Amino acid sequence: MASSQAQMFELIPYEKFRDTPAVRFFDITVAESNARDLVIHSGPAVSPPDEANTGAWQFYLHPHQEDNLLALTGGRVFYLVNFGWSYPYHIVRLDTGGDILRIPPGTFHRSISDEEGSVVLNQAIREPGACVAREFRVYNSRLIPRLFATTHRTAPLPKLHGVSW
């Protein structure tokens, strides 16, 4: 019997379709997208922020939404954890002019912006009946032992994508 593995995150290139002097045109369409979120970080913001009392990392997890993130200005580092992946912990750099980061439903994720901040467009794909309030719950890693063990500094190192130690 074949094992069913969760869909991996993906870096999706987009297409430049025209260049003129000092102006470049790109098709950044995510065809199935049915929601647009514009996320603006002022300075080196952490989203979601660390838990105030303990400093524990917090994460989002969208059970019924796929994120498709494109950095419009600045850059961010994303921390992704999905226990359905063969290697559950990845750190991915997202830069202006880089690929679109697809984060599948069921993936814990958080991000930290560069010192100058960042603006990211999310061309989300929300399942019918998805509720924004439920999709944007915050999960404290201290309260989820497996998540805490995976992301704690004593855990095995994550896989790095566009980031170095």
How would you characterize the overall build of this protein?
With 165 residues, the protein is mainly beta. The chain has one domain: Jelly Rolls, CATH 2.60.120.10. The protein has helices at 132-135, 145-151, and strands at residues 10-12, 15-20, 23-27, 35-41, 46-47, 58-60, 65-81, 89-95, 100-103, 108-126, 138-140, 159-161. The strands form three sheets. Strands 1, 4, 5, 7, 8, 9, 10 and 12 form an eight-stranded mixed beta sheet that branches. The longest helix has 7 residues, at 145-151. The radius of gyration is 16 Å and the shape is globular. The relative contact order is 0.27.
Q: Report the span from N to C terminus.
A: 39 Å
CATH architecture: Sandwich
C-alpha geometry: globular
Radius of gyration: 16 Å
In the CATH hierarchy, what is the class? Mainly Beta
Q: Could you tell me the number of beta strands?
A: 12
Q: Topology as H/E string? A: EEEEEEEEEEHEHE
Classify the helix fraction into a percent range: under 10%
β-sheet strand percentage: over 45%
Number of helices: 2
CATH topology: Jelly Rolls
Low-confidence runs (pLDDT<50, min 5 residues)? none
Classification by helices and strands:
mainly beta
What is the mean pLDDT? Answer: 93
Main β sheet profile: 8 strands, mixed
CATH superfamily, called what? Jelly Rolls
> How many domains comprise the coordinates?
1
